[in-house]
Amino acid sequence: MKYKVVLEQAEEGGYTAYVPVLKGCVSEGDTVDEALDNIKIAITEFLEALEEVNKGKRVVEVEVAA
To answer: Could you give phi then psi for residue 54, rounded to 5 degrees?
Structure first.
């Protein structure tokens, strides 16, 4: 699955990466590549945590036409 990631250069150096559709999914890195590697890990962990939070709840998928 692909997610749009926003990269911003941090004032103190390095980069911050976040995923707008996954509120609170944020990571950092000293370089763009490191920030992107770190946000991939953060996305995986975010989705795992979300799955755990929703365990036992009725979850359905919907398709939205672009």
So the answer is: -95, 5
Radius of gyration (Cα) for the chain, nearest Å? 14
Of 16, 63, 29, 24, which Cα lies nearest the Cα of 46? 24
Query: pLDDT by residue (tens digit) across 23-34?
Result: 999 999 999 999
Cα 60 from chain centre? 21
Residue 50 has a CB neighbour count (10 Å cut-off) of: 13
Cα–Cα dist 14/46, whole Å: 22
Domain extent for 18: 6-53
**Is 65 inside a domain boundary?**
no
Q: What is the pLDDT of residue 66?
A: 78
